[in-house]
TrEMBL record:
Major enzyme class: transferase
Domain of life of the native organism: Bacteria
Assembly with partners or alone: Homodimer.
Protein name: Thymidine phosphorylase
Length: 445
């Protein structure tokens, strides 16, 4: 019997013309792309076809399984400390603006007694990535061995690392999506997140699924579908998985960028920081501890008593970072002043993400180096009083030629109003000062 062989043009045409991809075609294309048998331009075309045509749940499940099978799977089922099994749990966000939650959260969970093996990603589209943020700490490396990951889980309770040999198909596809306009696709987001997370071997997973203007999927209905799809993928592989839907209409916190977000995370770890960052950190921690079976620990206490900060410092030091080094900040800046007094009305998270990307915090070409010091400080958040002439935003970059385009992106994306209108009363894209939705919208799973 002759074995049927696939080729990239046939697979691309099938999806382009709206057909389902068979299990065999999916297995072949993921394996061939991982090993260089499908070119970047062919995979780009297929990703665009998937972006436009979508995939059903069966295709998403097979695509995810094939991405997991493209590399190794970690196993921490024998992780023991003082003779007792250490539960492992992780969280992943679908991508937001100012979303630095992983940094304090990982430390909080470690301080509460579980272990977090976090395979993290780089910036994607207009959103930041945990690795780009942490690499702004002088000396920090995310390229650590599996042996080091295990040792850190035992000694510190956390490791944050580049996925490396976990789901290498995702590493390649993720980098390609970032520069080919194919990020905002439910099947591609679900398979990207879940392939890394299921390969990483945590006992349980919590997913932070963003909703709103700064999210990849804008409507609550799409985000709910994404959450349900990912929860189903996790449960199908026997991993307890829960999703929390959270608002991403306005940026999280007062800092958006790389080093500037690490600095804000340190404020949270020191018991301060913006309310929304603290609220989301604690809520996700509660969900993670619940799934990990850890009772009687108050995650908020670990921020107050410094135990989470101790874990974060230990993690950074173990991964080569200098916890005492000054964090970089862009050498050029421009500040936007309030044109009038009143109340900060709105800040569009999408526009803010693009502003920071234009300042140099993200990539326009595969593998490009990001600027650690690029970012925006938000001086006034929606609902806060504003005096005429005071600073509202400060933009930082090492490259002053980037400032005009970044200022152009920010222009028209925020407002100062007389008084906050009642929530939900403003139609269209300009939102009220108290956000239309609560920060934590719902839980799925
Ligand atoms: N995070 C990921 O790992 N992948 C995506 O596609 C989006 C967010």
């Amino acid at each position: 019997m002759t074995e049927f062989t696939f080729d990239a043009p046939t697979v691309i045409r099938a999806k382009r013309d709206g057909f389902r991809l068979t299990d065999e075609a999916i297995d072949w294309v993921i394996d061939a792309y991982t090993h260089g048998g499908v070119a970047d331009e062919q995979m780009s075309a297929l990703l665009m076809a998937i972006f436009l045509r979508g995939m059903d749940r069966g295709e998403i499940s097979r695509w995810t399984t094939a991405m997991i099978a493209s590399g190794e799977k970690l196993d921490f089922s024998d992780l023991r400390r003082d003779g007792r099994r250490v539960p492992t749990v992780d969280k992943h966000s679908t991508g937001g603006v100012g979303d630095k939650i992983t940094i304090p959260l990982v430390a909080v969970i470690a301080a509460c007694g579980a272990a977090v093996p976090q395979a993290a990603g780089r910036g994607l589209g207009h959103t930041g990535g945990t690795l780009d943020k942490l690499e702004s700490i002088p000396g920090f490396t995310a390229e650590i061995t599996k042996t080091q990951v295990r040792q850190q889980l035992l000694e510190i309770g956390a490791a944050i690392f580049a996925a490396g040999e976990l789901a290498p198909a995702d590493r390649k596809i993720y980098a390609l999506r970032d520069v080919t306009g194919t990020v905002e696709s439910l099947p591609l987001i679900a398979s990207s997140v879940m392939s890394k997370k299921l390969a990483e071997g945590a006992d349980a997973l919590v997913l932070d699924v963003k909703v709103g203007r700064g999210a990849f999927l804008k409507t609550e209905a799409e985000s709910r579908e994404l959450a349900a799809t990912m929860v189903e993928l996790g449960l199908a592989q026997g991993v307890p998985t829960r999703a929390v839907l959270t608002d991403m209409d306005i940026p999280l916190g007062r800092a958006v960028g790389n080093a500037i977000e690490v600095a804000e995370s340190l404020e949270v770890l020191a018991g301060g920081g913006p309310d929304d960052v603290v609220e989301l950190t604690i809520r996700l921690a509660v969900e993670m501890l619940d799934l990990a079976g850890i009772d009687g620990r108050d995650p908020a206490q670990t921020l107050r008593d410094g135990t989470a900060m101790d874990r974060f410092r230990a993690l950074v030091a173990a991964q080569g970072g200098d916890v005492h080094a000054q964090l970089p900040i862009g050498s050029h800046s421009e500040t936007v002043l309030a044109p009038r007094g009143g109340t900060m009305g709105d800040i569009n998270a999408m526009a803010m993400g693009l502003t920071v990307w234009r300042l140099g915090a993200g990539r326009a070409h595969p593998g490009e180096r990001v600027q650690s010091g690029a970012g925006v400080r938000i001086h006034r958040r929606p609902g806060e009083p504003v005096s005429a002439g005071e600073p509202l935003f400060t933009l930082y970059t090492d490259n002053p030629q980037r400032l005009p385009a970044a200022m152009g992106e920010l222009d028209g994306s925020w407002s100062v109003v007389d008084t906050c209108p009642p929530a939900g009363s403003i139609p269209g894209s300009l939102r009220s000062c108290p956000p239309v939705r609560p920060l934590i919208i719902d839980r799925i799973g």
